[in-house]
Structures are given as C-alpha cells and as structure tokens.
Amino acid sequence: MNVNEALQALDDAVRSSLETAKTQGAKAFEAGQFELAKHAADEGKTIEAFVEEVARIKRRWENLQNVSQESNLSIEKPVHQGSNNRSNDPTNPEALIQPILRILEDMGGTAQRDDVIERLEQALLEELRSSNEESTGSGLPKGWEEILISSQKIMVKRGLLNARPQRGIWQITPQGRLLLFERQ
Fold first, then answer.
1. Quick check: helix, strand or coil at residue 170?
2. Cα–Cα distance, 87 to 106 (Å, whole number)
3. Is 25 exposed, middle or buried (0-12, 13-18, 19+ CB in 10 A)?
4. Which of 37, 99, 132, 153 could share a disulfide with 29, CB 3.0–4.6 Å?
5. Are 91 and 147 in contact (CB under 8 A)?
6. Distance (Å, rounded) from C-alpha 6 to C-alpha 77?
7. Are 169 and 112 in contact, with CB atoms under 8 Å apart?
8. Using 50, 70 and 90 to split pLDDT, how confident is the model at 126?
9. Is 166 exposed, middle or buried (0-12, 13-18, 19+ CB in 10 A)?
10. Which residues does residue 111 pair with via DSSP β-bridges, in sequence order?
C-alpha cells in the first residue's frame, strides 16, 4: 500500500466513523435519549476535527509529491543513518517505534505509558533476553528505560506521538497512524 492509498483508506475510515456517529445521534434524539444524542454530537465534533486533520495531511503529502516531481526526486521510505543494520534489534530505539505504535493503536490510540510498556515487554521479552547478555533481574537489557525514553523522544520529534498529552499518557498522532498504514 502506498502513501496515497493509505491516506485515502484513513480518510474513508474516519468519514465512515463520522457518519456512524451522526446516525447514532439522530436515532438517539428521535428516541428522546437526549444525553446519548449529545454524547454522539460531541463525538461527531471530535471526529470532524480529525477529518480536517487528515485532509491537511493529504494536502501536505500532495504538495511534497509535487515538489519532488518538479525537482525529479523520488520519495522513498527513509533509511536511518547510524542504524548499522539493527532494525530488528529491540535494544535499538528505532526498532521499537513500530511495535509501540501498533500497541497504542490496538489500545484505541491513547493509553497509560506503563500499560504500553508492559505489553511491549511481554511481546518482546524473549527477543530482549537473547539480544543482550547483560540484563536486569527481569530479563530486560540494562538501559531498557533509556532505550524506551529514546524511542519516545524519536516518536515525538517525528510527530508520531502527541508531544503533550496528560503526564504518563502516550497518544498516537495521525502521522503515527499513517506510518502504521503505510508499513502494513
């Protein structure tokens, strides 16, 4: 799936969610369930804002494509310098980005940092144990917390995680979701 297809799929999915919220709100209103109707309307407003964000991302991507075509450049997936072929090494902060985003998406897009890390550790524990002979008593490599902090900083810097949600909360951004769609 290329970026344009992923963006269109995201746009379609978000618009479908908006229509569902509108339909549920209308049905609740007709049934006299005004509190439920208000909740659906509030959800619809939130989804509408997300629809606008997706539209902005699509426009930015189109502009980037136009610029690259005008200058005969090819937009490809980035190759991260200094990775030394450690893309699957769980002690490499870059290697944790995709699993963290997937876990966040599976948890609804927003979750407690500790819950995300717990799921990540469960998913990677065997790999973590074998990749680093020096580990903590839990089987995690020494410096695990620093690796996680580095991953978080990278994701925030790239716009994949919300930079300022509530303390202790991780939240995926539209760009983070796009990255997941793109790499499926």
1. strand
2. 22
3. buried
4. 37
5. yes
6. 14
7. yes
8. low
9. exposed
10. 170
Domain 93-182 in CATH: superfamily? MukE-like family, C-terminal domain (1.10.10.2260)
Longest dimension (CA), the chain: 64
| Virtual torsion, Cα 62, 64, 3, 116, nearest 10 deg | -120
* Terminal CA-CA length for the chain: 7
CB count within 10 Å of CB 59 equals 10
Residue 105's Cβ-count burial label (10 Å; 0-12, 13-18, 19+) is middle
Confidence of residue 78 (pLDDT cuts 50, 70, 90): very low
Are 123 and 139 a contacting pair, CB within 8 Å?
Answer: no
Of 30-44, 64-78, 125-139, 152-166, which one has max mean pLDDT? 30-44
**pTM (global) more than 0.85:** no
User: Which position has the token pair 């369930």?
Assistant: 33
Spatial distance between the Cα atoms of 154 and 100, rounded to a whole number of angstroms: 12
Tokens read off for 32? 């006299």
Q: Has residue 84 got a pLDDT over 50? A: no
Token digits of residue 98: 């995709």
